[in-house]
Design brief:
Blueprint lengths: L1 E4 L11 E5 L2 E5 L5 E2 L1 E7 L6 E7 L16 E10 L2 E9 L9 E6 L10 E2 L9 E5 L2 E9 L9 E9 L4 E10 L8 E8 L2 E8 L7 E7 L7 E2 L6 E2 L10 E10 L5 E8 L25 E8 L8 E2 L9 E4 L16 H6 L3 E2 L7 E5 L2 E5 L4 H4 L1 E4 L4 E9 L8 E9 L2 E9 L3 E7 L7 E5 L3 E9 L2 E6 L4 E6 L5 H4 L6 E7 L5 E9 L1
Antiparallel strand pairs: 1-24, 2-3, 3-5, 4-25, 5-6, 7-8, 8-9, 9-10, 11-12, 12-13, 13-14, 15-16, 16-17, 17-18, 17-19, 20-21, 21-22, 22-23, 26-27, 27-38, 28-37, 29-34, 29-38, 30-31, 30-37, 31-32, 32-33, 34-35, 35-36
């Protein structure tokens, strides 16, 4: 017996999709504007998870992220396995939306890759695509805006047969279901059990009113009938003080022994409440800097088979669950540092497939060529805990006049808290919020090698340089997801900018 503690994937790992292949479980997540894209996780016991790679990690796979907005890019990935082949489907959202070439399929015979190029699916509209295999046929599912929508949230789930040798849709597009009345029906996943087809979707938007609902049919093309138990998973009825909210966008998997487990995204708010006036689709009311994380829960099937029961004991996602029937598999996740494995898998850039502005330059050391903006220099990892400490040493010797380098808690362009060092006659150190809405602190030094620290204590972010006796605390509420209209989460990032591409050494990165 082992204990699965929620969230099983802490930090910005939303829209989880899960499969089992023999004794191995795999999860993928959305990655939005960051590259490499679509993190892949492995476990044997549903408890201990390790990121083993990213499905898109090469420029030649053809995923252009150069024209995506913050919280655009790669959304709602789904993983499936059929006849020895892994398939991942996802949607790329560009600044101009809707456009063309946005749904794509990746394939591999080995979960560790290499993964194929992005096979874009023509004439496939909407978002949140997935695949379903039924005997000798494959089906492509997504959502779409209705032909005569009442408003921009009035969507429905559609499906078409797909030829996976050409990645072309075949025949009629069938409208399957438009949910139970919540906004934005999306995130479709289909399953077959005891002769019934089950269509699991997300509704209500991805904020407080997020829900998971389900319908079933005896035909793959419908009609699908909503379960009387809907919504089968939500926390929208719980008070704002409840520690987990925004629960939805689920997937489920059957174990060898016939038992089932599910995964869903959810958030852990901290830092009090606000009036929610800036949130379009929800009263909001809380701050959630860690973004949408991956949670796990048991699933059972009642005798009527009308629908599964998610988290059946309490009807809500709890802090932990006992996992029985699986042997403990004690693996740990990749440590975050400047090793080749960590830089390849854990560290991400923004919309930059080539990632050629940094390289390993020694043991736990990386050499970064500063670009002309914070976002193009950016090299970051996800914040995964409300309370953390991290540090990094920076060699400033090669900075030119006007160059800037530093460390930041970052959620999007114009929304980050940072300690920045600017090269003037000396080195001018400042702690500031990019918004300019918080008090700043500054100090000057002639020392060209400095160790920067960044710590988080709930919503307090403290940045400083201990050897100079310098630190300053900023309020992290302003970089929360809802306050910045972000679907991502806070990243701990190496930042900088230079007009002459100066070289900076970052050394000995540590986070705990």
């Amino acid at each position: 017996m082992t204990l699965a503690n929620n969230p099983i994937l802490p930090g910005f790992y939303p829209d989880p999709s899960i499969i089992r292949v023999e004794d191995d479980f795999y999860i993928v997540n959305s990655s939005f504007e960051y590259f490499p894209a679509i993190p892949i996780w492995h476990s044997k016991d549903l408890v201990n998870w390790r990121q083993i790679g990213n499905a898109i990690d090469r420029a030649d796979q053809g995923l252009d992220l150069s024209d995506v907005a913050p919280s655009g890019g790669v959304q709602a990935a789904t993983i499936r396995h059929h006849n020895g082949v892994f398939y991942i489907t996802s949607t790329r959202v560009k600044r101009q939306w809707p456009g063309s070439d946005y749904h794509f399929v990746l394939t591999s015979t080995d979960i560790n890759g290499p993964w194929s190029e992005c096979h874009f699916v023509e004439d496939a509209y909407g978002i949140d695509s997935s695949l379903f295999f039924d005997v000798d046929k494959a089906y492509f599912l997504a959502n779409r805006l209705k032909d005569q929508p009442k408003n921009e949230t009035d969507t429905e789930i559609w499906m078409s047969e797909i030829d996976l040798s050409t990645f072309k849709l075949i025949g009629e597009k069938h409208i399957l279901w438009d949910g139970t009345g919540g906004i934005f029906p999306e995130g479709p996943r289909m399953y077959k059990r005891n002769g019934w087809y089950y269509l699991l979707i997300a509704e209500g938007g991805t904020l407080h009113f997020h829900t998971t609902t389900i319908a079933r049919s005896q035909s793959v093309t419908g009609p699908f009938v909503s379960s009387q138990r809907n919504p089968i998973l939500t926390h929208k009825h719980l008070a704002r003080e409840y520690p987990v909210h925004n629960v939805g966008h689920a997937d489920m998997v059957e174990l060898k022994d016939g038992s089932w487990w599910g995964v869903a995204l959810a958030s852990r708010p901290r830092g009090g409440f606000y009036d929610g006036g800036n949130v379009k689709w929800s009263f909001g009311g809380y701050y959630r800097n860690l973004g949408r994380e991956t949670f796990i829960f048991p699933v059972t099937w009642p005798a009527d088979d009308q629908s599964p029961l998610f988290a059946p004991d309490t009807g809500r996602v709890e802090d932990s669950y006992e996992v029985t029937g699986l042997s403990a598999f004690n693996q740990t996740d990749i440590p975050v540092n400047f090793t080749a494995e960590s830089l390849a898998i854990k560290w991400v850039t923004i919309g930059n497939e080539k990632r050629d502005h940094f390289r390993i330059s020694g043991e736990n050391s990386v050499e970064v060529e500063l670009q002309n903006s914070i976002e193009s220099t950016f090299l970051g990892v996800r914040q995964t805990a409300w309370n953390f400490n991290c540090s990094v040493t920076i060699d400033l010797a090669e900075l030119k006049l006007g160059d800037v380098v530093g460390l930041a808690a970052y959620i999007k362009e114009g929304a980050y808290l940072s300690l920045e060092i600017k090269r003037t006659e000396n080195f001018e150190v400042s702690v500031q919020a990019a918004s300019g809405k918080q008090p700043t602190a500054a100090i000057s030094t002639e020392i060209s090698r400095l160790s920067i620290e960044l710590s988080g204590d709930d919503q307090d972010y403290t940045l400083g340089i201990p050897e100079l006796g310098f630190s300053h605390t900023l309020d992290g509420r302003e970089i929360s997801c809802d306050m910045t209209d972000s679907h991502t989460g806070v990243m701990i990032a190496l930042i900088g900018k230079s007009d002459c591409k100066s070289i900076v050494q970052f050394e000995n990165f540590q986070i705990s």
